[in-house]
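Section 3.1: Structural characterization of target chains.
Under the original work plan, the team committed to producing a structural model for every single-chain target entering the pipeline before any wet-lab resources were allocated. The record below documents one such target. The sequence was received from the expression subgroup and is listed exactly as submitted; it comprises 625 residues.
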Amino acid sequence: MCGIAGLIHLNGDAVSPVVLKRMTDAIAHRGPDGEGQWIDGNVGLGHRRLAIIDLSPLGHQPMISADHRYAFSYNGEIYNFRELRTELEAAGYSFRSQTDTEVAMVALAHWGTAALDRFNGMFAFALWDRQERRMLLARDRYGIKPLYIAQQGNSIWFASEQKAILSDTRFRRTLDKPAMLEYFTFQNIFTDRTLLEDIHLLLPGHFLTIELGASKPLVKRTRYWDYRFREPDQPASKAEYVEELDRLFRQAVNRQLVSDVELGAYLSGGMDSGSITAVAASLFPYLKTFTCGFDLSSASGIELAFDERVRAEAMSARFKTEHYEMVLKAGDMERCLPKLAWHLEEPRVGQSYPNYYAAKLAGKFVKVVMSGAGGDELFGGYPWRYYRAVVNQDFEHYIDQYYVFWHRLIPNSVLSKVFAPIWGDVKDVWTRDIFRNVFLTHDNELGRPEDYINHSLYFEAKTFLHGLFVVEDKLSMAHSLETRVPFMDNDLVDFAMQCPVNLKLNNLAEVVRLNENEPGNKTARYFQKTNDGKQIMRDVMSRFIPEEIATAYKQGFSSPDASWFKGDSIEFVKRKLITGSPRIYQYLDADTLRSLVHQHLDGQENRRLLIWSLLNFEQFLAAYE
């Protein structure tokens, strides 16, 4: 796990070693174990190393191939690299190191971009072919590792984080208005945009080629993989599905234990992280585990159940792990916000500061940590979401229903008014087309409720899960920590996409129509606990973890901010968003947003997600404007 950076001048100007080093210095937190820069005229590659596999100098990057044709800057882990190495050795290749980096480089030299389909892992890389004068930039299937690309004039920058690009003083910073609209609609960005114009996030499952050998430089993006959730034509028996999931889950965890440094696991009180810990602890004695809990002395309602430390401690005792925990209080959010916003670079899904502290805790003891991310999105962990749009007249009706659900921050009725300062007198600011475009490449039948559930699973894997990965990468690497996600093993994902919906959800015919932002008791109804989802996983995971955990109601990793924002943190919220002269009101309508914030502070609506997003955006402007 590392950080990569690079620069290309399309007009042939030589890359400055000073600029390239400044780019790698900007992401030094991603790789404290080493750095390197390599320049070939108008092309430069940089790297920061976090040594995980083969800690020797042979793993130094940028790595140069034995024939000096290729230069490679790579971030990630290819878990099946040993199998690939055996195959490549049989084809006549020899290796100097024990790294997966060298295997990935040789595989790309041998198979070309077809090697991407063979990689089982997480990665983002830049491969420069000196002979063909071609740069290949690529990102893993699921978007676990980020890769940003920017172009202004005759220069193209790329890096693991935007701050590396911004370190070049020639890059002009301008806020991207469509991306702002996207974020404040969905609390996420579904397209390849970022909050800064000209910086784009290479989409998951894509690669980009830059041809410099042609008479005119050519830049081309290609999608090489996509999710495909669909009902099987000839489903097997439930027992066969259960046994196959058991095998694939054990295999996935075992694959991702490969490491030459100590590793640990996040351990909440839930099924996903608990099952990973159970399998990992059986294969890796004295595993370290980490939990973040919350001080609930000022919480109320459903938030009184947000602290999972008791269940985590019980599972730690059961699996004999070396367990560490941290308790977060209301003031911890405001304390970490400046650093968090700088590392996160732009707001994305969720209230991410608990993740920042969890990574900070784990980073004190290990360099690698395993996470349960992905289990919910693959196996139907959020049934109340899917049931909102499971019965439809047609696809457009489905889009209308699901779009309303994912309209998470600013109500559609005031969206145009909120953006009037930068959009002018526009009566209707429309984001439905952004939502609908997520499905452009999803090949799936429609008509049955199961088909619409599979559409929802596709949407959430493409958008919500991807947003979680972007956040997790930034916040773990802020503490020089590698996060691994066993649920995103290729074989396990392939299985999940072909697993029948009726093995994931019990109450398919039920339609739940609740609103996340409704006040009082209706909020509790929206967050109604259920153990309806992930049925096949519950069957399998009950083999690893206590029955009461495997059958427990779904609960996410969330802090009690609905209470804190109108209680312990109310003065901080008022100071940042109500009084004074916040930067955000240079771009967004102050009166409308202050009114929405007051609705939360007065107990009329639950606007916790909006308040967090405004606080985060305000801090983003302070750091990156």
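Residues 511-527 have pLDDT under 50 and may be disordered.
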